[in-house]
Protein backbone atom coordinates (compact mmCIF):
# COMPACT_ATOMS: atom_id res chain seq x y z
CA UNK A 1 0.00 0.00 0.00
CA UNK A 2 3.01 2.26 -0.17
CA UNK A 3 3.00 3.03 3.54
CA UNK A 4 6.75 3.53 3.40
CA UNK A 5 6.12 6.42 1.00
CA UNK A 6 2.84 7.88 2.28
CA UNK A 7 3.23 7.26 5.98
CA UNK A 8 1.85 4.66 8.30
CA UNK A 9 -1.79 4.78 9.31
CA UNK A 10 -0.90 5.05 13.00
CA UNK A 11 0.69 8.43 12.29
CA UNK A 12 -2.81 9.74 11.60
CA UNK A 13 -4.94 7.74 14.04
CA UNK A 14 -3.06 7.74 17.34
CA UNK A 15 -4.23 11.18 18.48
CA UNK A 16 -7.97 11.92 18.83
CA UNK A 17 -7.28 15.66 18.41
CA UNK A 18 -5.32 15.24 15.17
CA UNK A 19 -7.70 13.47 12.85
CA UNK A 20 -10.99 11.65 13.16
CA UNK A 21 -13.06 9.32 11.05
CA UNK A 22 -16.18 11.43 11.39
CA UNK A 23 -16.72 15.15 11.18
CA UNK A 24 -19.14 16.74 13.60
CA UNK A 25 -19.90 20.46 13.57
CA UNK A 26 -18.13 22.20 16.42
CA UNK A 27 -16.11 19.15 17.54
CA UNK A 28 -12.44 19.65 18.34
CA UNK A 29 -11.60 15.95 18.59
CA UNK A 30 -12.81 12.55 17.48
CA UNK A 31 -15.61 11.03 19.53
CA UNK A 32 -14.87 7.84 21.47
CA UNK A 33 -16.56 5.54 18.96
CA UNK A 34 -14.91 7.15 15.92
CA UNK A 35 -11.50 7.10 17.62
CA UNK A 36 -11.92 3.43 18.59
CA UNK A 37 -12.97 2.46 15.05
CA UNK A 38 -9.92 4.25 13.62
CA UNK A 39 -7.63 2.37 16.03
CA UNK A 40 -9.28 -0.95 15.13
CA UNK A 41 -8.71 -0.31 11.42
CA UNK A 42 -5.11 0.63 12.22
CA UNK A 43 -4.60 -2.59 14.18
CA UNK A 44 -6.18 -4.68 11.41
CA UNK A 45 -3.80 -3.25 8.81
CA UNK A 46 -0.82 -4.40 10.88
CA UNK A 47 -1.60 -8.08 10.37
CA UNK A 48 1.01 -10.05 8.43
CA UNK A 49 -0.21 -10.80 4.92
CA UNK A 50 1.26 -13.03 2.21
CA UNK A 51 3.66 -11.64 -0.34
CA UNK A 52 2.10 -10.81 -3.70
CA UNK A 53 4.55 -12.87 -5.76
CA UNK A 54 3.18 -16.16 -4.45
CA UNK A 55 1.56 -18.95 -6.46
CA UNK A 56 -1.59 -19.18 -4.33
CA UNK A 57 -1.96 -22.78 -5.49
CA UNK A 58 -4.95 -23.38 -3.21
CA UNK A 59 -6.77 -20.28 -4.40
CA UNK A 60 -6.71 -19.73 -8.16
CA UNK A 61 -8.58 -22.35 -10.17
CA UNK A 62 -9.83 -24.11 -7.03
CA UNK A 63 -13.30 -24.79 -5.59
CA UNK A 64 -15.09 -24.33 -8.89
CA UNK A 65 -13.16 -21.26 -10.01
CA UNK A 66 -12.11 -21.31 -13.69
CA UNK A 67 -8.76 -22.94 -14.44
CA UNK A 68 -7.67 -20.04 -16.68
CA UNK A 69 -7.07 -18.08 -13.45
CA UNK A 70 -3.95 -20.16 -12.76
CA UNK A 71 -2.42 -19.31 -16.16
CA UNK A 72 -3.21 -15.60 -15.87
CA UNK A 73 -1.81 -15.48 -12.34
CA UNK A 74 1.35 -17.34 -13.42
CA UNK A 75 1.81 -14.90 -16.32
CA UNK A 76 1.31 -11.97 -13.94
CA UNK A 77 3.90 -13.35 -11.50
CA UNK A 78 6.32 -13.91 -14.41
CA UNK A 79 5.92 -10.26 -15.45
CA UNK A 80 6.42 -9.09 -11.87
CA UNK A 81 9.57 -11.22 -11.68
CA UNK A 82 10.94 -9.55 -14.82
CA UNK A 83 10.24 -6.13 -13.33
CA UNK A 84 11.88 -7.15 -10.06
CA UNK A 85 15.02 -8.33 -11.89
CA UNK A 86 15.16 -5.00 -13.73
CA UNK A 87 14.99 -3.14 -10.41
CA UNK A 88 17.70 -5.40 -8.92
CA UNK A 89 19.98 -4.48 -11.84
CA UNK A 90 19.42 -0.82 -11.04
CA UNK A 91 20.00 -1.41 -7.32
CA UNK A 92 23.26 -3.25 -8.01
CA UNK A 93 24.59 -0.58 -10.34
CA UNK A 94 24.41 -2.66 -13.52
CA UNK A 95 22.13 0.07 -14.86
CA UNK A 96 22.85 3.39 -13.14
CA UNK A 97 19.83 5.14 -11.73
CA UNK A 98 19.79 8.39 -9.81
CA UNK A 99 18.22 8.75 -7.36
CA UNK A 100 18.07 5.20 -6.13
CA UNK A 101 14.49 4.04 -5.52
CA UNK A 102 13.91 0.50 -4.24
CA UNK A 103 10.36 0.68 -2.95
CA UNK A 104 8.58 -0.34 -6.16
CA UNK A 105 10.22 -3.74 -6.37
CA UNK A 106 7.35 -6.26 -6.80
CA UNK A 107 9.36 -8.73 -4.73
CA UNK A 108 8.58 -6.51 -1.72
CA UNK A 109 4.83 -6.13 -2.42
CA UNK A 110 2.34 -7.67 -0.03
CA UNK A 111 -1.15 -8.87 -0.84
CA UNK A 112 -3.78 -6.68 0.76
CA UNK A 113 -7.41 -5.72 0.70
CA UNK A 114 -9.05 -2.35 0.44
CA UNK A 115 -10.86 -1.17 3.54
CA UNK A 116 -13.50 1.46 3.04
CA UNK A 117 -16.02 2.97 5.37
CA UNK A 118 -19.58 3.61 4.33
CA UNK A 119 -21.78 6.01 6.15
CA UNK A 120 -25.54 5.73 6.11
Protein architecture, described:
The protein has helices at residues 3-6, 10-13, 32-44, 68-91. The chain has four helices and no strands. It is flat, with a radius of gyration of 20 Å. With 120 residues, the protein is mostly helical. The chain starts with a helix and ends in a 29-residue tail after the last helix.
Structure, briefly:
The chain is mainly α. It contains 4 helices and no strands.
Shape: flat
Tally of separate helices: 4
SSE succession: HHHH
What average pLDDT do the residues reach? 80
User: What is the SS-derived class?
Assistant: mainly alpha
Sheet-strand content, in percent, reads under 5%
Helicity, in percent?
25-40%
What integer value in Å does the Rg equal?
A: 20 Å
What's the count of strands? 0
Distance between the termini: 27 Å
Q: Give unreliable regions as ranges.
A: none
Largest sheet: none
Amino acid sequence: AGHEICGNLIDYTNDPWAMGGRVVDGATSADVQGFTIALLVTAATGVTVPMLMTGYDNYFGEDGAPMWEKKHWADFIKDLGAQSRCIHKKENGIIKREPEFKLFDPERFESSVSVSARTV
